Amino acid sequence: MSEQKLREAIDTLKESGVRITPQRHAVLEYLLNSMIHPTADEIYKALESKFPNMSVATVYNNLRVLKEIGLVRELTYGDSSSRFDYNTTKHYHIICEECGKIVDFHYPSLDEVESLAEQVTGFEVSHHRMEIYGKCDSCKNVETQKH
Ligand SMILES: [Zn+2]
Ligand SMILES: [Zn+2]
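The line above is the sequence of Peroxide operon regulator; the predicted structure tokens follow.
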């Protein structure tokens, strides 16, 4: 399944006239197969052995290019490190307050909320953001072991 997705992503790159360097390909592939919404640093660490000459700045640079053509979403949570997500179908995130893990979950997009907000405020809505917070399974288990 991700093979297919990767091919589609490569096609999008080609259509956008973006050069497909081996690093760019690797960053994209890593994001596609990663369920953890990695930071640039985590991507760098994962690919370091494969590309000894690559720097964190290169990873950032690649992520920015991928973001510009809409393949990648940047998730900022007010701390210093953004997390990155391969931009597939719209989904929401649930975030662990203990370890910061972000997990995807699917729920119909809350379009009614957007149009209501538009009507009530007169804004032109561009997007919305909803996050659910809690404690993930592994953090929950750690907690119970302590007691
Ligand atoms: Zn957790
Ligand atoms: Zn996600």
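Note on the example: The mean pLDDT is 89. The longest helix spans residues 2-15.
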